[in-house]
Amino acid sequence: MSFMELPLPELKDPVWTPGVPPRYKGVDPAAVTAAIQGELGTVSSAVVLNWNALPDCMNAEATVAMAAADTHCRDFQPRIPDANLCPVTPRGLALDPSDWRCTGSKIRWPGGNLPSFVSGGEAELAALLGHEPSAAALEVLDRGGIVLTNRTFLSGPGTADFQTVDPSYQQGVPAANGAAPKQKIITTVPVQAVVDAPDLPLPIYGVMSPATAARLGVLATPQRLLMTLSAAPTDAEIDRVHSALAEIYGQYNSFQVERGNTEDLSFWLWIIVGAGALITLSAAGITAGLALVDGRADPATLAAIGAAPRLRKSLAAARTLTTASLGSLLGTAAGVLPSVVVVSVLRNVPLVVPWLQLAALLVAVPLVGAAAAWLLTRSRLPMARRQPLA
Hints:
The chain has 390 residues and is of the alpha+beta class. Helix content is 39%, strand content 16%. It contains ten helices and eleven strands. The radius of gyration is 33 Å and the shape is elongated.
């Protein structure tokens, strides 16, 4: 399944004058959906995401004008109670990433493809959750409450504090200790709330009904078109979609396909395995060779008492297997343990273990070294000059 986010209501004029705010006009979501469906034919669902449209909050002149008119650059968010804040280090890292206050869906960065909240109903909620909403979530939504994505937003049993904030307040003024400047809280309203966590930790606060959004002072307008595809589009199909959308948007359109993590690191992992194998086998071969040279008299003594000629080959293979196994184990531990420690202190960074590559280093490399030592070691020693007994 692929998800797409497409800005809906805004169309920049083909000609834009620097210093002059661009003008926008609405775009029909049905026309956008039809254009994409006509080029792909794999659209299984399309949901319009409505939310508050922020003005140019970073424009100094606009901010001064809003302040003179006693208006604000309004944004909306749930208040996280102090008891639910994630305990962090002075550098902002979670003290315990497994703590429930540090996990799940949260807004962690400004902007992004999804609105912070969504004004909608069951269809929008199901599309964002990735599963059918619970009966409690639908009931709260119908009664004018909010469905939240994380229980850290709850201020009490079944309630949350909905805040109107001015994100432009003290914009550009650094706070103490390098922290982000605090937003100005305009209003705080308690609302009925329930938690229904999405399948994926999306950067979104939750969903409310259009009536609730209007009651809370949100001017909800179409912001994104979230589409689910039955098959991932090719580059050629994406180019055709851009061409079709150009007739609607002009030269400005934002069509993005969420493919998840598509970076394949297996090639580089195998390069690391190859380098590790070369170092391990070289060290094990040198160690086994020195041991054979140092103990040349031992196989001769064993042969004199009836040992089989292949015993020398077996001794070389055993030494190589032991040395390579210990080297692989210690080298892997030296590389893996620091990585585990680093990942454990980072917030919401998944730990992915390359089991196949680790198995190759810990099992295959020592066995290959032992087999090579057995094959390359001569079973019989050349006749050595006898030494007189003292």
